[in-house]
Amino acid sequence: MFKVERHRRIKEILKDCRQIEVSSLSNLLEVTDATIRKDLEELEREGFLTRFHGGATLNSKETDTPVGTSFVNQITEYDKNKEDIGRTAAQLINEREWIFLGPGTTSYYIACALRDRININVLTNNFLVAQALYNSPGIRVIFWGGQVEYPGFYTIPDNLEKEFENMYLDKAFFSIDGVDMNAGYTLSDRPVYDLISMIKTRSRETIMVFDYTKYNQRAFMKIGSLDFAATIVTTPAIPDDYKQYFLKHKIQIYTTYDLKPINF
Amino acid sequence: MKSFCIQTRSLSKIADRTLLTDIDFTAYSGEVHAIIGNNGEGKTVFAKLLSGVRSKTNGSIFLDGTELHFSDPYSAQKEGIYILQQEPVLFPDLSVRDNITMGVEKHIQKRCFWAPSVRKLDSVCRSYLKNFGLESLNLNAPVSALTAMEKLMIQFCRILICNPKVLILDEPSAMLTNTEIEMLFHFLEEYKKDRIILLITHNYSVLLNHCDRVSFMSDGQIEATFTVDELAAPSSQAYLERLKMSFSYPTMHLSPEEEVINISSLSTDFLSGIDFSIHRKEIVSIAGLKKEQKESLISALLHKKGITGGSVTFPESKQQPLISLISDSPAYEMLFATQSIPFNITASDFRRTREHLFTSAKKMRSYGVHYFQKLHIKDADIHTPPMYLSTGTKQKVILARSLFKRANIYIYDEPTKNLDSTGKLDFYNILNALALEGASILLISSDYSEMIGMSSRVILVKNGCQAGNYSTNYLSAETLSKELE
């Protein structure tokens, strides 16, 4: 395994478990203890972690949430594609805007990418988003109360119409479960359907975020055809027919490219 | 001369996929008939079928009532059908005179055993070049040194000498500035008498002023044909609207960070008063540069050569920073055709593939595969010889080479000129990602909407002087093109 790749893996692992022994790292990555020690030393210089005898612990700055209260780690697996999408999507958000981040882990990654930004207003019903942003001083978060939907970690307000009275947003981000040429955008969580249709009418822009695994998939409820949202953020491997469709319908397509330099 | 028409009946072309289906089309003499549609709808294929460059699969073509059968451009030319193609068809090392008259001598001097004299050729060349304000062109100079517009006009003159009955112009406006387009149409206004002129374009703004009839093409079919007067009617508006909405650019305005390039009142032999700066994470475009002005700006940036006044500084770095340049030469010229793709990608920085004293093929390959995957090159694999790659993929390999350089500053000169809309989309998103990584990008372009869509500022150069430095927030392509006129 190359060094860059190793560093990335170590960071991932450490973000997941926060504290780890040299021996388990060397087992996981199949390299010698000496190599891991050297890597940890370099990562310590980067300020990513603190070493202790026989292992290392994540620095608090890198910690997503205070250790112990986190449920993010329990329900989300690290997903590089979604993180890339989050990074790109976050760039579409400008200062002073009001945005909505919908249910789903992709929204969580958008929120993570927003942490160091300032002067942004976020409306959300997603616990993960709230958790990612609650201690970011530059971001105002409004969390919507309501009935908690357990598997997705979000709430559904009792009375959508009333909640949304006199409320207008700049951008709304939604992730969906399926993108299909015939079926359009589809969702499996029924309650989210009403939410999306409601918010779309109140938002200047609706932005769909999804990765390549969603193409040619169908879920339960159709929220709209593929031109439902004027902007999409996705991974670059868009199947050709979808790409043609999007271009033809003048949909603004943002794709993620990870151009971090690499050394072999 | 009596009027005539060119007609097609259920003309189809099927190559790797269906390109054209059942086209019934008629154009009459004395008219400029435009065929308009977005990229990749089959306009060029249609033009190539009519002119014999590609062969049809089904259907028939009639000129003045008689059916035509041709298998190559020459047999079409015998019927008087000529095409001005998009890509240059020239002998790069031959002189302007030879390029204009090569192969068309028999039209210059009929029934003569001897080749026409140079004097005669010169006078013929000048008389045609005069139509486009190029009479002062040096006829002995090789064409490789000329601008795109001059090259195009040389090909055009070669066709005009043959006195075509049917003249097909494939996207002439792609190469020309607005004034040059005006000049071309002014010429056609007179010339279209007793001829059929077919104009292939995706640029609708030329239509209303200069064409007599317009056919809309979509997905390999002619959808509708209108006269220009009918275009004003509401029924045809829908077609126009669809064209007007061009490409949606993935605009991304990052907040620029520290200043990376500072150009203050720079003058060179070809430029004066150039004054702008580029920041980290910023894409800036520059418009209105002619070939030699472009070159002098690039050499001032790269080598600080030819600077007669003002300065170019890089406030961020102590020495000259790494700059990666992609020039506007066609992709095939920039690739090592006989070398592998990994070689082509790593060619910008061989030191990184070094293992001891030699370059390591293994490292080269790893980098090659890495960039291949990063840029999601689909229609080829790492072993494909570069010459078999499609235009879009070639451009991506060149882009990969430029990325491999890991420069701080990227200068891209007309990078999307030969790309179709999917290729463009990929390119623009890579550009965004590059800026996101902290690069500074200077985009030299002549596509106004591209500049507005992708960059945060547009620098406008007119006759070698800087005419403006605009933020793209409140700028439209129309304003820009007006400013440049």
What does this structure look like?
The complex is a heterodimer of chains A (264) and B (485). By secondary structure, chain A is an alpha/beta fold. Chain A has 2 domains: 60 residues, Arc Repressor Mutant, subunit A, CATH 1.10.10; 184 residues, Rossmann fold. Chain A contains 10 helices and 15 strands. In chain A, helix 7 links the parallel strand 5 and strand 6. Chain A is globular. The termini of chain A are close together. The relative contact order of chain A is 0.11. About 2% of the residues of chain A have low confidence. By secondary structure, chain B is of the alpha/beta class. Chain B folds into 2 domains: 240 residues, Rossmann fold; 226 residues, Rossmann fold (3-Layer(aba) Sandwich), CATH 3.40.50.300. Chain B has 18 helices and 21 strands. In chain B, a hairpin with a 5-residue loop joins strand 11 and strand 12. The longest helix of chain B has 16 residues. The radius of gyration of chain B is 24 Å and the shape is globular. Chain B starts with a strand and ends with a helix. Classes of the chains: A alpha/beta (264), B alpha/beta (485). The interface between A and B is medium-sized, with 28 and 32 residues.
